[in-house]
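Schema walk-through. Below, the input block comes first and the output block second. Nothing else is stored per chain. Lengths vary across the set, and this one has 160 residues.
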Amino acid sequence: MEALPSYKSCFVCGKENRHGLHIQLFADQDLVRGTFKPRDFLCGFPGIVHGGILASVVDEVMWWATSWKRACSCVTVELNVRYLKPASTDQEYELIAKVIGEKRRIVEVEAEVRDKGGGIYAAAWGKYLIFSGEKNQQTIPLLDFKNCSEEVRGRYLKGA
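--- output ---
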């Protein structure tokens, strides 16, 4: 598995966002994976993770699945989340996403939030618009490659 970069100030993956979740994501062949241990202040109801937080983490893992596949930045254009059961704040969850289709600059991705036993708490599907040219070049300097291999760094810098 390869550690992916992060956007420094991103709420979900950014290491420099003091209010953020600081989720580290990894490329595992055609999947992007990470873990998420929700803190108590991320609740809707006491002890239950707010649905908006779950939407944020699946959006993030799908965004990075798109980014990894195309070695560039993108923007979410559609996000659908199905909440299958309440996610409690007392356990860690696995985030998994993979690209399921591509048409020109639109990439379709699916993701899940699972517990360690494989139980699915949320399933998501989204579409992401690939940045090209100058727009992509403007986003690359915002990436934090501290935990990344030279191969990962080179992959993104080549696309810039």
